[in-house]
């Protein structure tokens, strides 16, 4: 289950700059589907190295918005590092759901700012 997005925390990460916040959120909204696709493809291929690199990239992006999302990505990153892919499919499914929740919350956040 997703925690709510903490607007004040996110805003503090960008030095209180609301325009920068908007830009960072829009980049995440635009880029996260492709990052998820890359992880999903790597999981399907059972490619540990690609799982690691794709999950690492998403983790770096989502950490700005959600500790839970970052933690889920980290779990997949660690699986890739270790080459232990047992449960990767279910971990990816959970991450995909969480990213969907995060994206929805962020979309609402920037819509309120229009």
Strand content: under 5%
CATH topology: Four Helix Bundle (Hemerythrin (Met), subunit A)
Question: How much helix, percentage-wise, in residues?
Answer: over 70%
- Helix/strand-derived category reads mainly alpha
Which shape, going by the Cα principal axes?
elongated
Going by CATH, the architecture would be: Up-down Bundle
Q: Please state the average pLDDT score.
A: 93
Summed up, the domain count is: 1
Q: Mind describing the biggest β-sheet?
A: none
Rg for CA atoms: 14 Å
Helix/strand order: HHHHH
- Note the total helix count: 5
The CATH class assignment is Mainly Alpha
Which ranges are low-confidence, i.e. pLDDT below 50, for 5 or more consecutive residues? Answer: none
N→C terminal distance: 28 Å
Number of strands: 0
Structure keywords:
single chain; Four Helix Bundle (Hemerythrin (Met), subunit A); 0% strand; 114 residues; mainly alpha; elongated
Can you put this structure into words, describing what you see?
This protein is mostly helical and 114 residues long. The protein has a single domain (7-109), classed as Four Helix Bundle (Hemerythrin (Met), subunit A) (Up-down Bundle). Helix content is 80%, strand content 0%. The longest helix is centred in the N-terminal third of the chain and has 28 residues, at 18-45. The radius of gyration is 14 Å and the shape is elongated. It starts with 6 loop residues before the first helix and ends with a helix. The mean pLDDT is 93.
SSE arrangement:
Elements: H1 7-13, H2 18-45, H3 48-62, H4 67-82, H5 88-112
Helix pairs in contact: 2-3, 2-5, 3-4, 4-5
């Amino acid at each position: 289950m997703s925690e709510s997005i903490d607007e004040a925390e996110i805003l503090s990460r960008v030095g209180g700059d609301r325009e920068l916040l908007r830009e960072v959120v829009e980049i995440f909204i635009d880029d996260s589907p492709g990052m998820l696709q890359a992880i999903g493809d790597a999981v399907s291929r059972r490619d540990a190295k690609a799982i690691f690199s794709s999950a690492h990239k998403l983790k770096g992006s989502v950490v700005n918005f959600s500790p839970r999302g970052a933690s889920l990505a980290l779990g997949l990153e660690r699986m890739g590092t270790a080459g232990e892919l047992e449960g990767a499919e279910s971990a990816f499914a959970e991450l995909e759901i969480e990213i969907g929740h995060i994206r929805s919350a962020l979309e609402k956040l920037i819509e309120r700012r229009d």
